Amino acid sequence: MVRNLRADTANPMPLVAIVTGAGGGIGRALSQSLAERGYRVVLGDRCEASLTATLQTLPPPALGELWLADVVDETAWQTLAEQLIARGETVGLLVNCAGVLLAGRLADSPASELRRVVEVNLLGAMFGCRAMAPLLAAAAPTTRPASPSAPPLPIGVLNVASIFAPLAPPGFAAYNASKAGLVTLTQTLRGEWGPLGMTATAVLPGITRTGLFKTGSYTADRLAEAVTSRGDQGTLSAEFVARESLRAYALRREIAPIGRRAGLRYRLLHWLPGVVRSRVRRDANRLLEESS
């Protein structure tokens, strides 16, 4: 279901950026950064209270609109696209940041939870790209900046994946696979959209201090406590990830690890894949055994 809760269209049409998962964490930080660049941000999430809180943090005189919807609802995406077209708005950027977490051995994971993770993290992004592709393509020749004080970002999509995609730690099968799929989706879109003047970037943040771990699903209470504790110890802030993600996108990078540790591990995977994967598997399996 989609509800247009607030749309401020008093000023001349700025470029629109659509951000899913905007109710908190990295999605909120990205929304703030894009608002600072002069975009009118469509804030997407399922929680109205969280979206309202994000809207209130946008720097004035930022324009924002709440899009209360589930990213796995294909109809919601089509309705949003139709609304934007009807208002004659120009969409310059889609940010797929909505994500959910499931931790535990695959054999212990409920089928409904596995399906939900893949649908939100991957299928929702596919629906978004499918619905917004015509609007982004129409904006691709646009050369005006989003703000007089900031250079324009490329037209296209920014997909927030995870360093878990290439590392594939045990205990996160659905999350790892869905984020890896998001990377492959990005690579595919660069080929499809490139001739149309659009681009696509996938960022791979390391462990970031957000609500992802607290709101995740777990196969055991002790595992929830252990994973949440590690999440709280993450060295990255949502604001840092947002800033570095937009920098990577502005440079039109295809895949960009975010954070010093994530970057080091990503590079080492190409040179010493066996060593890196062995260490990741050992540490993750120890966590699973201690929490079982």
Automatic annotation (TrEMBL):
Coiled coil: none annotated. Keywords: Oxidoreductase. CDD domains: SDR_c (cd05233). GO terms for molecular function: oxidoreductase activity, acting on the CH-OH group of donors, NAD or NADP as acceptor. Its EC number is 1.-.-.-. It comes from the Bacteria. InterPro entries: NAD(P)-bd_dom_sf (IPR036291), Sc_DH/Rdtase_CS (IPR020904), SDR_fam (IPR002347). It is an enzyme of class 1 (oxidoreductase). Belongs to the short-chain dehydrogenases/reductases (SDR) family. This is Putative oxidoreductase SadH.
